[in-house]
């Protein structure tokens, strides 16, 4: 049978080992949180920088898109009035 002192010494050793493991786990968790923060900071920073540098091009092409849409709408309106005019001419010739 083990004496009480041996049991206490074994318990002390286990407690110290547990303490080392818990400290390592805590340190790993802290570093994980730091790297997660840096990860999201880099992602959001890259998005912001991309928008900042690409904004002039986006604005330019958005204006081009708007002018193209308005030109197509004008062509559509011209086509419908032309159809109405041709229908009127055909009716007059009959």
Structure, described:
There is one protein chain. Helix content is 96%, strand content 0%. With 94 residues, it is mostly helical. The N and C termini lie far apart (124 Å). The mean pLDDT is 90. It contains one helix and no strands.
Describe this structure in a few short sentences:
With 94 residues, the protein is mostly helical. 96% of the residues lie in helices and 0% in strands. Keywords: Membrane, Transmembrane, Transmembrane helix.
Explain the layout of strands and helices.
Elements: H1 4-93
Number of helices: 1
Largest sheet: number of strands, sense, barrel closure: none
Q: Roughly what is the average pLDDT, rounded to an integer?
A: 90
Strand content: under 5%
Which structural class do you get from the secondary structure elements?
mainly alpha
Straight-line distance between termini: 124 Å
- Shape descriptor: rod-shaped
What is the rounded Rg? 38 Å
Strand tally is 0
- Which runs of at least 5 residues are low in confidence (pLDDT < 50)? none
> What sequence of helices (H) and strands (E) makes up the elements?
H
Helix content: over 70%
List keywords for this structure.
94 residues; mainly alpha; 1 helix; 0% strand; rod-shaped; transmembrane helix; membrane; transmembrane
